[in-house]
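Task: sequence in, structure out. Protein: PTTG protein.
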Amino acid sequence: DCRQYTNRSCEECLKNVTCLWCASSRRCMEYPVRRILPPADLCELRSARWGVCWVNFEALIIAMSVVGGALLIMLGVCCCCCCCKKKSKRQVSGGPDKDDERAAREREKRRVRQEERRAEMKSRHDEIRRKYGTV
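Result:
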């Protein structure tokens, strides 16, 4: 039972992980597990200690908010950098639309050259057939 450590020390109270130490009233009590933060009528956040005696809930909330905010900012910056890098790569390479257009023009040029070669070969073969009278 956590109440037996009331009016003793924070360290003794917090040896049991289910206990919450209230520094202002020097009370040791069961941590209210149904709530994330202890209610103000039980103990003020700046006086509440859980897990370790040197960190109060108020400082813990502020520190977690700062760390969480910093992580969100870093994630946003990384996303922006990745997007900018992809945009610049697309612009340097001509983008997917320009690449597709270029490839289509190349295919069309090859097709036209191939048709010209076929026509040329056909005319040569026809000429040879006429020369030897096979037509």
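DSSP finds three helices and three strands in the chain.
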